[in-house]
Design a protein that fits this description.
With about 500 residues, the chain is α+β, with helices and mostly antiparallel strands. It is built from 16 helices and 22 strands. The strands form four sheets. Strands 6, 7, 8, 14, 15, 16, 17, 18, 19 and 20 form a ten-stranded mixed β-sheet that branches. Strands 1, 2, 10, 11, 12, 13, 21 and 22 form an eight-stranded mixed β-sheet that branches. Strands 3-4 form a two-stranded antiparallel sheet. A hairpin with a 5-residue loop joins strand 21 and strand 22 (about 425-430). Helix 1 runs parallel beside helix 6 (about 185-195), helix 1 (about 15-30) packs across helix 13 and helix 2 crosses helix 15 (about 475-490). The N and C termini lie far apart (about 50 Å).
Length: about 500
């Protein structure tokens, strides 16, 4: 039974942080735009955006060592770190605008100030971190970064980690006080609440079964209403697929050339959560180490202070694992179902290239709680097993595609925006840095997919994002201006964090 048929300007699939960000930006530049959002689950931000399903780092490359790559000659490439930091500055400007205009309230419910620390052990890793600090600290985006090899100084930065530690090998750390913890679940809910007040239609328990292009250039989206099991058909000039791990299968249904030779590799994970408030309050930072040899970048071990539902907690992980599901609420047939005639050789090539990764993921899956505790004790030597519980992290799907540099079946670790040539449909794939770079990603999308409107939108974009069209790294005065404004509007002062 067909329940209804509607026509709208924009359809978004998935009620996560990406759709919430794009919808909010589009409504600001064009308040008359008709936006419809479909979400399979009963609430917003329940998959990748949920606060229990991601690290909430506010990725800005302040402490994430995997964004600084070491070349064969020993030199370091900081290009990606600089770009990610710049992108997060753009995101914070947009959030500041929303708070300043009263479009969202109580920013402390979704963002908190928190030091970001990198910690390494061993002579080679210490040399790596020292070189990284030397290169980054002269960049305006990282000028506040401190470096130390002094155990006493490191103990001031992270007392829980240094307590009871035997200093029998070289150790070093960097620290930036201007980091954040972001509750993307809370932010998603705030943005979607605002969108509904702006007359956007947000439909829950609505799963998209098909997407096809009509003769007149519009897209028809077939939706099943899970509440009454009826079918709905909705058409729009533009469709955004922001459905996390489900984005790839939905993109494949469109049949656009850009969806060919694309595959996905799902990675699951487990975090430890501290159940002892006395232990949790003794650590106030996000501390990232280096990934084990053969481990995927998203498996970089980190000990994170988190603020969830107004409560300070402590998480460690992730312990990587494998599941064929593309979402936590997905199907065990997701991976097999994503293999198509046009990507089968890409997928097979990826499998052959990444046997060591598969072996690593299986070994992680087999770890007992005590074996995982041993990994935790590399961070917290005094950790007790009874103080920690396990929680399953969000499912991530890494993009597999053919590249010039990596050849056929190259596994991509990052966020990728796939756009049709005519700009009528776009999908966001991949994982980290993801949500932290959402605003910059959406500027890219709006520029490509709305070419006739973007010029008229630029004055509003410049109001929302003062650095629009500029590079903050090349404009230190503007950088400091927007940073100070963000601190004020987003209430990013350390006293607030400590009081929590």
């Amino acid at each position: 039974m067909v329940k209804k048929q509607t026509n709208t300007d924009v359809i978004m699939i998935g009620a996560g942080i990406m759709s919430a960000t794009l919808g909010t930006m589009l409504k600001e530049v064009d308040s008359e735009m008709d936006i419809t959002i479909f979400e399979k689950l009963g609430e917003p931000g329940e998959e990748s955006s949920n606060e229990w399903n991601n690290a909430g780092t506010g990725h800005s490359a302040l402490c994430e060592l995997n964004y600084t790559t070491e070349k064969a000659d020993g030199s370091l490439d900081i290009t990606k770190a600089v770009q990610i930091n710049e992108d997060f500055q753009v995101t914070k400007q947009f959030w500041s605008y929303l708070v300043e205009k009263g479009l969202i309230e109580d920013p402390e419910e979704f963002i908190m100030p928190l030091p970001h620390i990198s910690l390494v052990h061993g002579k080679e890793n210490v040399e790596f971190l020292k070189k990284r600090h030397e290169l980054l600290s002269v960049n305006p985006l990282f000028e506040e970064m401190e470096y130390s090899e002094d155990p006493k100084k490191l103990a001031e930065w992270m007392p829980l980690i240094m307590r009871g530690r035997e200093n029998n090998e070289p150790i070093a750390g960097t620290k930036v006080d201007d980091g954040t913890d972001v509750n993307f679940g809370a932010l998603t809910r705030k943005l979607l609440d605002h969108l509904e007040k702006e007359n956007a239609s947000v439909n829950y328990l609505s799963t998209v079964e098909d997407i096809k292009k009509l003769a007149d250039g519009r897209w028809e989206v077939k939706v099943r209403n899970l509440a009454d099991n009826t079918l709905e058909f909705h058409t729009a000039k533009f469709v955004f697929i922001g459905a996390g791990g489900a984005a790839l299968p939905l993109l494949q249904k469109t049949g656009i050339p850009e969806s060919k030779q694309l595959g996905g590799f799902p990675v699951s994970g487990v975090f430890f959560v501290c159940n002892n408030p006395e232990v949790a309050k003794d650590h106030l930072a996000k501390v990232y180490g280096k990934a084990a040899v053969g481990a995927p970048p998203m498996s970089v071990p980190h000990l994170d202070t988190r603020y969830i539902n107004g409560k300070q907690t402590l998480m460690f992980g992730p312990f990587a694992g494998f599941s064929p599901k593309f979402l936590k609420t997905g199907s065990n047939m997701d991976l097999i179902g994503s293999v198509k005639p046009n990507n089968v050789f890409t997928m097979l090539s990826a499998g052959a290239k990444n046997l060591s990764l598969t072996k690593y993921l299986i070994s992680q899956l087999m770890l007992s709680k005590e074996q995982r505790m041993e990994e935790l004790r590399e961070f917290i030597p005094t950790a007790k097993i009874e103080d920690w519980d396990s929680v399953t992290a969000g499912q991530r799907v890494q993009v597999i595609k053919d590249t010039e540099a990596g050849g056929k079946g190259t596994l991509q670790f990052g966020t990728e925006l796939v756009k049709s040539e005519d700009g009528s449909i776009a999908a966001l794939l991949g994982a980290s840095p993801g949500a932290s770079t959402a605003v910059e990603v959406m500027i890219d999308l709006m520029t490509h997919c709305f070419p006739d409107q973007i010029k008229d939108w630029e004055p509003k974009l410049e109001e929302m994002i003062p650095s629009y069209g500029k590079k903050l790294v090349e404009n230190p005065e503007l950088l400091h201006e927007v940073q100070n404004k963000a601190k004020e509007l987003l209430k990013l002062d350390e006293e607030l964090a400590e009081s929590k």
